[in-house]
Amino acid sequence: MTTGTDPELLSLCGLDDGWLDRRVFWDQAVYELELERIFARCWLFVAHESQLPKPGSFLTTWMGEDNVLVVRRRDGSIGAYLNSCPHRGNRVCTAEAGTARGFVCNYHGWSFGLDGTLNGVHESAAYGREPTFDQARLGLTPVARLDTYKGLVFATFDPDAPPLRDYLGEFTYYLDVMLDNDAGGTEFAGGSIKSVLGCNWKIAAENFAGDALHAGWTHASGAEAMIGRGVAELGADDADSYHVNAHGHCWEFNLDGVGNAATLGDKRIMNYLRENQERVAERLGELRARMVGSISSVNVFPNFSFLPGQNTFRTWQPKGPHRTELHTWVLVNRNAPPEVKDAWRKGAMMTFSPSGVFEMDDGENWELATRSNQGVVTRRQRLYYGLGSDTAIDHPELPGNVHRGQINDANQRAFYRRWSQLLRAATWDDLEKTR
Ligand code: FES
Ligand code: FE
User: Fold this and answer.
1) What is the mean predicted confidence (pLDDT) over 217-221?
2) Does residue 93 register a pLDDT over 60?
3) The ligand 1 atom nearest the CA atom of 105
4) ipTM of this predicted complex?
5) Which of 51, 228, 387, 393 has the smallest C-beta neighbourhood within 10 Å, fewest atoms?
6) Range of the domain at 105
7) By alpha-carbon position, which residue is closest to atom 2 of ligand 1?
8) How high is the pLDDT of residue 265?
């Protein structure tokens, strides 16, 4: 069923003078439309190149509710395929990550190469007698396109999607703060963590898009317990704080720089950032050097988030309208000293992991914000995203849409604007017309 043309459904899916219908966090039909028009079309983060160090390295992940197998092929290129056997649909690779020479389906024994082709079949004599059996057409289904940006691997199921560089647009200026502040590039520190949240994926994504407002309140007690003081005061008209967004990708930050570095002010991290600040300024300019290590939050549309400073990277994988699977990793500069990498990894685990102090604070709020919509009367109410509607500015250096101050809803509005445009647009050309 194509739900995309249902006008009544689409009428829910957009901001109305700053107000958003709560049913978008609860309705199964809205969710199905998101899978079709957002997750089956957008460029989605699937891996960091460091997770696929050599031919045969693989991992499995999600693009919407489609499980995909991401593989470093023999020629060094990266491929991604639907992780479902073309015979009876069984999941071909059940491991999360590893190294393999190929993949054998557990059901009837069909085997696939690193390039997704069907290499062999169990009981091959029987298939060999079958004239309609065309082995060349029975490989794993590849994604439409795969591309990388400075270590990050993205894929899309939509052959008509714009090139990745266009999809990210001027947001790459900001991404380079994390991905290109050192000539050695970045890597994911070893290991990842998965957890499940009973919330709609958008509530988590919009929080990382720019909800600085919650930090001083939700996390006040946790910060007090961990470091003996609350989260730094954030001012609505702080001259050095911004919400910026482009194409629905959002970054909120202040320019306090290293002085406000996250991960609980760990001395090894603080020293590393301070020692490198001049070199970063030469590489990225003074302004972006001040963004490195400052407390900020980011969402790359639709569901790939990170916290500069904390260096936690994560995807919010949708599992129905009321459930989200969270995958997290820690990003470090490849050339950072081992003790600094270690400090970042441990710091992120203490703060933003399922047992981390701050993640627990957030999860409870997001689950209750979702669950409250089970009430039929509650669900008829709307939510307000109008804070800071007059904060747009032109900035001589910052590209994209720029809003002054961290305490406003500018980025959340940008997130839902993009989301709404994608749900309504049948094609990428239609989408461009709505911008
Ligand atoms: Fe995979 Fe039959 S389902 S070999
Ligand atoms: Fe939070």
Assistant:
1) 88
2) yes
3) 1
4) 0.97
5) 228
6) 44-147
7) 108
8) 75
